[in-house]
């Protein structure tokens, strides 16, 4: 993986340095035959898309050459439109395929960070993921209770609540951040959830995916039907038991 990335980066810099197309062809994979010239923007957009579709995993930092590009995307209208489009699909799903029973066991799960609350103001000061994660500093930001709501998430949240579906928030944040998290969520308009599930001592060292799947398992054992999950990380959406549908919000600043 690392070698492959290095090779691609090498190719990008060759093209950017203006090396002629025939040299590029020698290195380029077979089947294209057109001497495809790629720009840094092409390279970074393809990096971003491959993060979103979960081909590119476990990255520690956004590649140095894409920091500016990812920063632009995460603060763009496009990012908002992409998020809105994803959540529009939730609304569609809720309107078409739902046979709610009214027995109080219909449930929906939201992730918190960069799903309900936006940490973009924090990452703006940390190269949009181009800097290695400093948990102390990130938790300092979380304690500050200053994260804004993602507007389209707030409206979906209220729509789901209005249908009488029980909302559970399953977050990678630790229990020590409970007060700060509740305050921040309330402050920007999220109220009326049934459960806010945070990492306790017993969850220490578990991967995000395993931890979240275990919490869903508990809900299923309590008789809940999980109709949907909204999250910005694949670790919120994958694993057993799964929801009837999952919805992925864009986020290429980090992998958790
Ligand atoms: C991480 O952040 C804390 C708090 O801002 C800071 O004191 C510390 O030096 C940082 N650590 C690293 C390795 O940068």
Oligomer class: single chain
* H and E order: HHHHHEHHHEHEHEHE
Spatially, the strands of the biggest sheet line up as 3-2-1-4-5
Range of strand content: 5-15%
CATH architecture of the largest domain: 3-Layer(aba) Sandwich
Rounded Rg: 20 Å
Q: Compute the average pLDDT.
A: 90
What's the level 1 CATH class of the largest domain?
A: Alpha Beta
Q: What is the helical fraction, as a range of percent?
A: 40-55%
As for the number of domains, it is 2
* Structural class based on helices, strands and sheet pairing: alpha/beta
User: Major β-sheet, in short?
Assistant: 5 strands, parallel
Number of helices: 11
User: Would you report the number of β strands?
Assistant: 5
CATH topology of the largest domain: Rossmann fold
For CATH, the homologous superfamily of the largest domain is named as HAD superfamily/HAD-like
Span between termini? 18 Å
The poorly predicted ranges are 10-31
Inertia-based shape: globular
**Distinct small molecules bound, one entry per kind:** 2-acetamido-2-deoxy-beta-D-glucopyranose
Question: Could you give the topology of this structure?
Answer:
Layout: H1 2-16, H2 21-27, H3 40-52, H4 67-74, H5 77-96, E1 106-110, H6 120-124, H7 135-143, H8 151-162, E2 166-174, H9 178-188, E3 195-199, H10 208-221, E4 225-231, H11 234-237, E5 245-248
Parallel strand pairs: 1-2, 1-4, 2-3, 4-5
The structure holds 2-acetamido-2-deoxy-beta-D-glucopyranose (NAG).
2-acetamido-2-deoxy-beta-D-glucopyranose binds next to helix 7.
Signal peptide: 1-21
Family: Belongs to the APS1/VSP family.
Pfam families: Acid_phosphat_B
């Amino acid at each position: 993986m690392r070698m492959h990335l290095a090779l691609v980066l090498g190719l990008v810099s060759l093209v950017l340095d203006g090396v002629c197309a025939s040299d590029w062809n020698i290195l380029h994979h077979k089947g294209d035959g057109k001497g495809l010239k790629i720009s840094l923007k092409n390279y970074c957009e393809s990096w971003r898309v491959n993060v979103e579709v979960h081909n590119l995993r476990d990255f520690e930092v956004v590649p140095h050459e894409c920091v500016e590009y990812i920063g632009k995307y995460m603060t763009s209208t496009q990012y908002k439109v992409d998020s809105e489009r994803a959540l529009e699909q939730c609304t569609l799903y809720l309107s078409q395929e739902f046979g709610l029973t009214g027995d109080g066991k219909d449930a929906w799960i939201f992730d918190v960070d960069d799903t309900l609350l936006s940490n973009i103001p924090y990452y703006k000061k940390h190269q949009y993921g181009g800097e290695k994660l400093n948990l102390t500093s990130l938790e300092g930001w979380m304690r500050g209770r200053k994260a804004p709501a993602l507007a389209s998430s707030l409206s979906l949240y209220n729509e789901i609540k209005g249908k009488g579906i029980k909302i559970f928030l399953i977050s990678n944040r630790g229990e020590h951040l409970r007060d700060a998290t509740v305050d921040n969520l309330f402050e920007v308009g999220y109220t009326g959830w049934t459960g806010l599930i945070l990492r306790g001592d017993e969850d220490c060292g578990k991967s995000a995916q395993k931890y979240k799947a275990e919490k869903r398992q508990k809900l299923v054992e309590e008789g809940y039907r999980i109709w949907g999950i909204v999250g910005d990380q694949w670790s919120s959406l994958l694993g057993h038991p799964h929801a009837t549908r999952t919805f992925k919000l864009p986020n290429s600043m980090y992998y958790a």
